Amino acid sequence: SLAFLTINGLSVNQRQKENTALYANSGTQRSLRRLEPHQTFIDTWRGSIKKVTEDLIRRRAEHNDCEIFSLEEVSLHQQDIERIEHIDRWCRDLKILYLQNNLIPRIENVGRLKNLEYLNLALNNIEAIENLEGCESLQKLDLTVNFVGRLSSVESLRHNVHLTELFLVGNPCTEFQGYRQYVVAALPQLKWLDGTEISRSERIRASQGLEEVRILVGEQEEEYLRRRVQEKEESERKAAGGEKQNRERKAGFDGCWYTDISNTTPGLEENQENQKNQENQENQENQENQENQENQENQENQDLEENVENPKIDEEEQEREFWETPCPFTPESRLETHRHLEQKRKEKEKKTEKKLKAARTLVTSDGRVLNVNEPKLDFCLTEDDETNMIILDLAVFRHLDTSLIDVDVQPTYVRVAVKGKIFQIVLPAEVKPDSSTARRSQTTGHLVLTLPLAQGEIRVTKIVQRPSRNCGNRHCSSPQDNKRNKNDIPERLEVDPSKRTSVDIANIVQRRSTKEGPLEVNRTTPPEADLFSEGFIDDPDVPPLI
Predict the structure, then answer these.
(1) By the 8 A CB rule, do 140 and 168 touch?
(2) Which residues pair with 255 in a beta bridge?
């Protein structure tokens, strides 16, 4: 189509000032820049066509559980779509369709959407209104900032009897004299045009002068289309001239012309002499060409060195030249801008692309285990002498799912994988992996590993002995008591069986002799050595048993 191969010559200074606020949101607003003669739509965009795919629609249908057949609203904006297709067959129940800020040049494949109420095609490359007769329920159509120049194509919307809102702001047709009057008279069902309500008096005035306005609009439209055709032909000639220059530059395989001298007819001797002379000339020319090539290579190397020294300056100059050079506002210039931005984005991705990290070494070639903390977690490694255990407290995130943690306990080290990141620590002593335990704290969420030591038995928790009363603030007088306290052996009553064969019940409680009373009985007190054991200490604070 010739519509894709031309450069629009319309002056867009006034129109661009009016539409700057709308067009700036598209991400392709720039100063007017002149297109190169050999750059056309087909040459530059044939290999980068982006289509509407089922996967794209399903990803945009998450609000409908990724179901396409029952989808009523879908947003496909800013997807670099260059053609509307498949939507009318896959999504028959669509009511709202967003296709703004794409690269769509034509309205097509939407006639089967009988329930479609709102169609947004703003910021595209549409040049005519067409193929919307089948959208019987269409109520709102947005064609803001497109390239609609055939204003007569608006009359195709007469079949859409429910259409009440139409937006054509930022299109070439809005500059035509009598534009609003023509649209209001051609579409009597409209209530709003370009965001402004259509009053009853305005509709009456528009219908009264419709024939005159139609003739005026027709003349302006013919002039616009004629100018477009001329510019298309001019762009084609420039493109053909650019290709011809490229072919002339590449005459031979090395850029030089050669002639066949073997077809001379004067005579064999003359031909041989000519051949020898030609060979000598060719040798001289080859030597000269080699010298010239060497000189060119040296110059190119010098230029490259200079360019390497200042690559940023050259890029900035090229970027400034691209954005500051004026050009007409056309579909081609918009495509070129998009291509330029896409190229810059890819270059930036290549620069910022992270190199594949080499696999982290957890164990060296000689078998030495390394300490690694990829998740950068705080930890505490303590050794309990009382229980002969090593306790590792790893501060994993509190709300982290336990299924994302993998623990591997080895005799000499512990490895914990937290969301694929490795935490590894070497233990100070050998442990028993089969007896180790791993638990999550219910308060902090920390991972606590209990690792019993391989050497020695697990000791029972010590029982705290109650201190004796006679050793409160003073030292114990008996060395045996100190020995018992050191060895933590419970005290037992010792009885010498050689001295007493039976228990003396009468002397369990010691009584003092008194001279009061008629029942006084003189009793001999046995020696203390016989009554008490060697380790017995008489505490005067303890009352006697009566």
Answers:
(1) no
(2) none
The tens digit of pLDDT for each residue in 121-150 reads 999 999 999 999 999 999 999 999 999 999
Q: Tell me, what DSSP letter sits at residue 63?
A: G
pLDDT at 197 over 90: yes
Higher-confidence position of 319 and 412: 412
Answer with the residue of higher pLDDT: 475 or 446. 446
| The pLDDT of residue 168 is above 90 | yes
* CA-based torsion, 248, 252, 253, 254: positive or negative: negative
CA-wise closest residue to 242 among 3, 46, 43: 43
Q: Concatenated DSSP letters for 280-291?
A: HHHHHHHHHHHH
| 107 touches 141 (CB < 8 A) | no
> Strand 379-384's sheet: what is its strand order?
379-384, 389-394, 447-452, 437-440
Per-residue pLDDT, averaged over 292-304, amounts to 68
Please state, in angstroms and rounded to a whole number, the distance separating the CA atoms of residues 242 and 246: 6
Q: Which residues contact 403 (CB under 8 A, 6 or more apart)?
A: none
265 phi/psi in degrees, rounded to 5: -115, -15
Token pair of 55, please? Answer: 């996967």
Query: What phi and psi, each to the nearest 5 degrees, are found at residue 409?
Result: -105, 120
Q: Tokens 């079949």 correspond to what residue?
A: 159
Helix ranges (DSSP H) in 46-136? 54-59, 87-90
Q: What is the C-alpha to C-alpha distance for residues 76 and 60, in angstroms, rounded to an integer? A: 7
Give per-residue pLDDT as tens, 111-124: 999 999 999 999 99
* Residue 20: per-residue pLDDT: 37
User: Cα 344 to the chain's mean position, in Å?
Assistant: 18
